[in-house]
Amino acid sequence: MDINSLLSPSDDYSSPANPSASPRPSSRPAFIDTDSNSPIHSGHTSNTTPASNPRQSPLKVNEASTSKPFSASGMSGPSEQVRDEVMTGGDDGDVAAAVAVGDGIGAAYEVVMEDVSDGDENEVAAPIPLSEEDYTRIADLLVSITNRPYQYESHVEYISLLRRGFLAHQADPREVEPYPLIKDLRKAREDMIERFPLNETMWAEWIADEIFICGGLEERLGVMELCAKAVEEESASVRLWKTYAEYIESQYSLGRDGDAVGKGKAKKVILSEEEEITLKGCFTLELVVETYRLGSLATKDNIAESHVLWDKYRDLMMMDLEANPTPPKVEFIRNLYVARLQIPHTTISDTFSEFSTFITRYDNANYESIMVSTNRLYAVALAKYNERSIHEDRLAKRGQVSLIEEWNAWAEYLEWETSQPKKKLDIDMACALYERCLLCFGEQARIWEEYVFFALEKSLGPRVKALLKRATRHCPWSGTLWAQYIIALERAYRPFEEVSEIKHRATTTGMLDLGGLEEVLKVNIAWCGFLKRRAFEHDAGEDDFDMAEMGISEAVTETGKKDPAYRLQRIHINFCTLAKKLDSAREIWKELAKTQGDSYEYWLRYYHWELSHGPKDKDYAGSTLKAALRRSTLDWPEKILETWKNHVEDFGNVEDVEYATVRYRKLSKEYSERRAQEAREIALQQQQAKDQQQEEDTPQTDGSARASSKRRRSVAEADDSQPKKKSKAVETLATEKPAAHLPPLASSVAKRDRENTTVIVKNLPPNCPEVRVRQFFRDCGTINSLKLIVEKDGKTSTATVEFESREDVLTAQTKNLKIVDGHSIEVQVGTRSTLYVTNFPPIADEAYIRDLFKDCGEIVDVRFPSLKYNTHRRFCYVQFASSDEAQKATSLHGKQLGGKESLMAKISAPDQKHERSGAVYEGREVYIRNIDFQAHDNDVQELFQKYGRIEKVRLPPGPKKGTHKGYGFVTFSTKEEALAAVEGANNTQLKSRTLIVSIADPNPSKQKTTNTNPSAEKTRDSTSGRNMDRPRQKSLGPANSATSPQQASVPAFSDIKKKTLGIMNLPDTVNDTKIRQIFEKHGPLRKVTLRPDHQGAIVEYESVADAGKATLALDGFELAGRKIKIGELADLMRQSPEKKVTKGFPTNNGDSKGGAVAFKPNQVNAGAGGMKGQKRRAGLGFSGAVRKKDDADVGKSEDTVMVDRPPAREAPKAKSNADFKAMFLRK
């Protein structure tokens, strides 16, 4: 049975002159009444005529209030509109906002009135009186708000200062006069609510202040109006509903007994007899019950707090039942319990127990059948609660955890709730969870956006429009919300004037500009789309068409020209096309060529438009492609060239096809040469910048610097005819400098001593920007890096600042206890706050490391090494906010990760080098080459076990499952056993191959850019110097008679190329294991080769189909903070090495422009722009160097050779840039 049906609405109102009525302000909507079928009777009536109302607004009264027991008519309580919106989600009328900005602004003001007999009200702790500076600030803020009324922070600060003065005035026993600025405080709040919503705390403060000073009848009715407005704005707030109901209850108690009890009391003021009669007529028991009832309905899905209001409402019902038991009342409360037990809530077990007691007392004869049927409903609700209890427990820790942890708890809870399967998803509970979250984070537009799109996805109908109205009020800077609001109104067929008003509100306040140009464009795109569709509806008139044409043109003029994606212009073109104004549309296309002419996408769009809407003669469409090809700065001319060729083949005659074929061949060659030239220029510029940086970083006296420069110049000039030997000669000469002027060797000191050049800065402001910290420490020395984190309490933040030298750190320590934006900071040396971590799984990434150490403290940064010069490195550094946290993290040292890895986690101390240990360093490991591919671990074990006790046999796995790479390692228990194995097993036969056995080298020659197997490298080296144009001969002899399955037949290069992918825009910290893990999901891999010198990797599949699937699935896949791009091998080889900033401000490598070199050469040119000839102290540095060309590179293409070969070192300044290029290109 529906509970609401027992309390139906009644709008029987009449004039204020009715002698039996209780007055209510007419400034709010009518309220819900209960009809005569209600089983509850108040036992209280009033037949006394109230005095005329002194308030300005007229009062409405209910003629039937004496004839309807427990009638809520005439009450100044929650509106019928609020009740309907709680049940249906709102309608087309005014909708009460239900979500607050949250508790982020202003201190919470709790009304402390637990003891009903103490008489103290609204106790607050020692407010600080306003100073002269505060009064000056108040005046300044008033001027600022008057001139710029949409400054949110100014409104908040203005109200905060006025309220602080109010609290100080009320707390001062010497003050007998009213607070002189109380009218200003009220007006400030009213002005703010006209433009911005108040959050839950601000509403509570306002209500508490008014309760504190209200005395007469008019003021008490004003507080009731204020409470009603608060719950209309924040209908999901249990706190505000409770405050409202308790205030009504206290006034009812005052009118009945002469004393107010409970929370929400107003101060005691002697009322006249007429005012007392009116007070009793306004604040009735019916109103108390109705307020609690509507509050319990509005918050019924709040799992954590809904019991606060529902329990009170149930208790009032039970009191009436106990006073006058009747069957209708018993049935009503039973249905109340049954409905409640179907809703998950924190006290559901207590509710079920209390229901059992109720049935025992009032319907014991049917106890078993009632409890059995109810238990089924209860079990379902209890299961729902148990599923959510873990999330509710996390939310219950609010105030005890950091703001970030609280945000994460809400995000994970919402993600879980809204991602439930369709049969299990509870939409009402999901919406209630969004409402609860918005009470805390109502200023976060992303939550509103997620809520809106969830409602759209679930087709919640009228609720969406009400939701968007509230969302745009709370986040007026979100273009997404305003745009969706316009679309929702259009879909609801709202009048043009209403949609226009929303667009006007969005764009005229200036708040939308805070979100940036993109947010303004979103609104204009939605608005122009609405105008366009409206102009071509079946019943549209000329005015609609003219309005659309004018509105779209205006939007394009205002913001469209700033949009790099020219979205508004495209809408305008679409409008003109639909209007058959093809010439106007074509003019827009041509005008766009001035700004978009370098974009191949623009030309393709223009071409397709001409193809569809242009003249029947398709030559006009083809002419657009010819115009594009005439541009030398086009970003992807190959795409346009291919499209033009296809166009001619589709629509041209034989002469056109012949001409296009010749032209296509010529242009293709030109573009290829241009790409190669650009790649060579970039490589030259990068090498010059690197050489210049190295010279600036090398400490020299003036004399030695000049002498060194002369020596380098003489060698460079003498070797102009031998560019390949030049760099080596220069390097050799550089090493001949006097020892006194040489920098320390890399083996003796760390290149970058982060552990001893880092300071930890604590107690910074919570929202302190990075640039502010840099400015504060800029006079201390060069800052290499800076990281900021917000502490758990959300009140302060901590920064770690890495300087260039230890002397800079000493200078930075003088900043200790200085004031930064009102905070006294602490500066501590960050020594021993960095952890060196290694021996973790190969697939581990930053998220894995952070999760591993999450319980040890605040992690500031996780740094993985570059794999540019050694692709097998596997370690990282974890920077903590303090040395104590880092020391705590060392407790994980030795932890088993998986089945093999034993974690190493130690405090990083680069100046304390330790001798390495382990089998390979102790000489107990032997290295075996030329192992037969048919041999297995047990074969090797059987052969070597006679030389001693074997601890481990390892054959690195091959590309196919069950194969190996032809070499392996055997670990013995002692060094002597390993030596015996080398002596005895070397040159012995295993199956069809002769083994080569040696002691494993702890420091083998490292591959610079690839992780291919050693046999491949050996083959390449052995062929160095040969004529690579001649086919490679097959090896003969017994040693090679048995080959692996994958070597049985050598596929053609064209076949390998089809199944080989070039992975671009790949960070040089990602290893091959991680890449293999991602790509092998789409098919078996043959080879994975890292190419960090080209910002990528090479992945070769066993089949072409798998390579195609991987391309479709993984192109744009985000890996280590970047979106990778997949192309061909040639595309990858055009990539230049990654440039890293080691000092100053970091750059965003997440979307490296260098990664698009194969597609957009104009971006390639920009890659190293401005670097040549610059002198920068501690400026940009480039990590790594371009790989030197060796003899094995003879057979490579020109492009590859020019990219891989290092350019000549920087010549003397007397030479020009043209001289550099000539030296570099000379063959």
Proportion of residues in β-strands: 5-15%
Helix tally equals 43
Could you give the count of β-strands? 26
- Rg for CA atoms: 39 Å
The CATH architecture of the domain at 758-907 can be given as 2-Layer Sandwich
Mean pLDDT, all residues:
75
Main location: nucleus
Subcellular location: Nucleus
Biased composition (Basic and acidic residues): 1017-1032, 1187-1199, 1206-1218
Keywords: mRNA processing, mRNA splicing, Nucleus, Repeat, RNA-binding
Describe the structure.
There is one protein chain. This protein is α+β, with helices and mostly antiparallel strands. Among the domains are: 62 residues, no CATH class; 87 residues, no CATH class; 150 residues, 2-Layer Sandwich (Alpha-Beta Plaits); 81 residues, Alpha-Beta Plaits; 81 residues, RRM (RNA recognition motif) domain (Alpha-Beta Plaits). Helices cover 47% and strands 9% of the residues. The chain is built from 43 helices and 26 strands. Helix 15 runs antiparallel to helix 16. The longest helix is centred in the middle third of the chain and has 44 residues. The termini are far apart. The N terminus and C terminus are likely disordered. One of its GO terms (biological process) is mRNA processing.
Please specify the SSE layout and strand pairing.
Layout: E1 24-25, E2 59-60, H1 80-88, H2 132-147, H3 152-171, H4 182-195, H5 200-213, H6 217-233, H7 238-257, H8 273-282, H9 285-298, H10 307-323, H11 327-340, H12 348-362, H13 367-395, H14 403-418, H15 427-441, H16 445-457, H17 462-474, H18 479-491, H19 496-508, H20 517-535, H21 542-558, H22 567-578, H23 582-596, H24 600-613, H25 619-629, H26 637-651, H27 654-697, H28 702-718, H29 723-734, E3 758-764, H30 770-777, E4 783-790, E5 797-803, H31 806-812, E6 819-820, E7 823-824, E8 826-829, E9 834-838, H32 846-852, E10 859-863, E11 875-880, H33 883-889, E12 896-897, E13 901-902, E14 904-907, E15 925-929, H34 937-944, E16 950-954, E17 968-972, H35 975-985, E18 989-990, E19 993-994, E20 996-999, H36 1014-1022, H37 1053-1058, E21 1060-1064, H38 1072-1079, E22 1085-1091, E23 1096-1101, H39 1104-1114, E24 1118-1119, E25 1122-1123, E26 1125-1127, H40 1129-1133, H41 1161-1167, H42 1198-1204, H43 1217-1225
Antiparallel strand pairs: 1-2, 3-5, 3-8, 4-5, 6-7, 9-11, 9-14, 10-11, 12-13, 15-17, 15-20, 16-17, 18-19, 21-23, 21-26, 22-23, 24-25
